[in-house]
Amino acid sequence: MKTLAMFGYLRDGVGKSTTKLLRNEGKVPCVLYGGNENVNFSMYSEDFKNLVYTPNTYKVQLDIDGKIYKAILKDIQYHPVNDSILHADFLAISEDKEVEVRIPVKFIGNSVGVRAGGKLVVKSQKLRVKTLPSKLPDYVEINIDNLEIGKSIKVADIPAQEFAILESPNNPIVSVKTTRAAQSAATAETAKKK
């Protein structure tokens, strides 16, 4: 998994007035937990665009006033009206402890069902996985070459990897739905045979 370098600044206060001042300066109050002690810091909201507004998932190398931490973004809170980032939680990671992360799904191949006129319906863009940080993949690859109309690929159909998928085995990830064009083509084909 790729790593993104980000810079933060230690913050003294953690009350409402302090966080309001930070937000007025264009900063986001953040907390790093999971280590020996929680670290309260802030980052400029612009610095989040490569981490948050992307389909990818990254490990983060946090530089907080010169001290380096390895982490992942665990939670983020948005303003209900303008969607600005209000707060972010980071989890410190170490190479000997497993972590849970949502990893994007990448589809490869060309579905038989889509070529026959069906519509590809993606049910899950990301999957929750658990593994050691060094074994985190950039994405979960799923081959859809043999996916026919009316069929789906479920979590249980994904071959074993170096990570455990925490979703229910019966959850569909992608399916091919019948379209009106495919139905009318099938009806016309049946009428020709009669």
Describe the structure.
- This protein has 194 residues and is an alpha+beta fold.
- It has two domains: 3-93, Beta Barrel (Ribosomal Protein L25, Chain P), CATH 2.40.240.10; 100-189, Ribosomal protein L25, C-terminal domain (RNA Polymerase Alpha Subunit, Chain A, domain 2, Beta Complex), CATH 2.170.120.20.
- 16% of the residues lie in helices and 42% in strands.
- The strands form three sheets. Strands 1-3-2-6-5-4 form a six-stranded mixed beta barrel. It has a four-stranded mixed beta sheet with strand order 10-7-9-12, with no helix packed on it.
- β5 and β6 form a beta hairpin.
- The radius of gyration is 22 Å and the shape is elongated.
- The chain starts with a strand and ends with a helix.
- The model has no long low-confidence stretch (mean pLDDT 89).
CATH class of the largest domain: Mainly Beta
CATH superfamily name of the largest domain? Ribosomal Protein L25, Chain P
CATH topology of the largest domain: Ribosomal Protein L25, Chain P
- Rounded to an integer in angstroms, the radius of gyration calculated over CA atoms is 22 Å
